[in-house]
Amino acid sequence: MSDVAERCGVSVKTVSRVVNDLPGASPATVARIKAAIDELGFRRNDLAMDLRQAQATSTIGIVIEDVSNPFYGPMIRAAEERATREGVFIVTASSDEDQEREEELIRALCARRVAGLIVVSSANDHSVLAAEIDRGLPVVLVDRPSEDLACDTVVLQNVLGARGAVEHLIRQQHRRIALVGDYEHVNTVRDRRRGYIEALQAHGIEVDQSLIKVGRHLAGEAAAATHELFGAAQPPTAIFATNNRATAGVLRALRDRHEQLAVVGFDDFEYADMLVPAVTVVWSDPAEMGRIAVDRLFARLQGDPSPPRLIELPTRLIVRGSGEIRPR
Q1: CA distance 242 to 190
Q2: I need a surface site. Which of 26, 79, 304, 309 has the fewest CB within 10 A?
Q3: How far is C-alpha 144 from the geometric centre of its chain's CA atoms?
Q4: What integer pLDDT is reported at residue 125 of this predicted model?
Q5: pLDDT of 301-326, one tens digit each?
Q6: Looking at the predicted structure, is the pLDDT value of residue 54 above 70?
Q7: How far apart are the C-alpha atoms of 15 and 304, rounded to whole Å?
Q8: Rounded Cα–Cα distance for residues 314 and 288 (Å)
Q9: With 50 as the cut, is the pLDDT of residue 47 above it?
């Protein structure tokens, strides 16, 4: 601003008023200052301005499990679109399902004075996040709830979605239905496993623990679990996969073995409808999760004093073919 002021023969205060769209300068002075700004390539430093005023920056931090996971792409995009309309920027980081890394990211974002956080938490211990909430930082949890944090939370109806998927397989006359899923400490996996068990019990089918393969975070690990299932004396006739990566691993193993088995996956994914057979999935709307999370964060920033809200978004089964294969 000093360079602009010197170029125009005005004070730095006058330049500041023009930059911040405040009254007090004549139209001719405003035009002269704006021309100098263009010539010198001046850009306002919003971070410096926020720090000078001892305010949080106009930035929201999003900490997710893995930015490469296709499930989170629509969620982040929707959050960005909603935030951009309010003049707020989004910074996204991946925890890689590592609690220490998640805590480091939260500390780093808070040190940069983000206005609020949206977190897909991989932690069992939320003390770092709880401390920031106690200091007044608005936080919204997405996809994975927490029993010990008092904050808004946006999740899917995981139990109902999983139960519906397994009941669909049961209606296709399957009785030996396997489950392949992610880490068991993740809330969504526990809830989807619960839905799986509830469906079996509701139809008088004994829960066979040998058919439950959890702790398989990567697609390759889910594929290995599928090979293990086929090595059993009584292999399953159907598989329920608890997320998109698990589904990908299951399908890869079936392709390698030249097997055709009934499969239903939780989470839709690109090209699922183009495979042969097309993949039956439990569909959800991650974009809506992102929009609601940002809306709740903005509500808190604007002073909403209401108690923390738990928002559960519905799922629905999309029947495409893979879940309709009957046992041989």
Answers
A1: 10
A2: 26
A3: 9
A4: 86
A5: 999 999 999 999 999 999 999 999 99
A6: no
A7: 36
A8: 11
A9: no
Residue among 143, 163, 147 nearest 155 (CA): 143
Cα separation of 181 and 265, whole Å? 10
Q: pLDDT digit string (tens) for 223-276?
A: 999 999 999 999 999 999 999 999 999 999 999 999 999 999 999 999 999 999
Peptide bond into 277 cis (omega under 30): yes
Is residue 184 within 8 Å of 214, Cβ to Cβ? yes
**DSSP one-letter code for 321:** B
| Structural domains in the chain plus CATH codes | 2-44 (1.10.260.40), 53-156+286-313 (3.40.50.2300), 158-285+317-324 (3.40.50.2300)
- Phi/psi at 121 (nearest 5 deg)? -85, 140
Of the candidates 142, 152, 138, the one whose C-alpha atom is nearest the C-alpha of residue 63 is: 142
Q: Name the amino acid, one letter, at 25.
A: A
Alpha-carbon radius of gyration of the chain: 25
> Is residue 49's pLDDT more than 60?
no
Check pLDDT > 50 for residue 106: yes
- Give CA–CA dist 135/130, Å, rounded: 9
pLDDT band at 44 (very low <50, low <70, confident <90, very high): low
- For the CA atoms of 139, 66, 312, 197, the dihedral, rounded to the nearest 10 degrees, stands at -130
- Evaluate whether 300 touches 88 at the Cβ level (below 8 Å): no
3-state helix vs strand vs coil in the chain, percent to 5: 45, 15, 40
Please, what is the end-to-end C-alpha distance for the chain in angstroms?
Answer: 77
Give the separation between CA 257 and CA 180, rounded to whole angstroms. 17
Question: Could you tell me the two tokens for 80?
Answer: 């960005």
DSSP assignment of 112-152 equals: TT-SEEEE----S--HHHHHHHHTT--EEEESS--SS--SE
Residue 5, helix vs strand vs coil: helix
pLDDT of residue 48: 47
3-state secondary structure of 59: strand
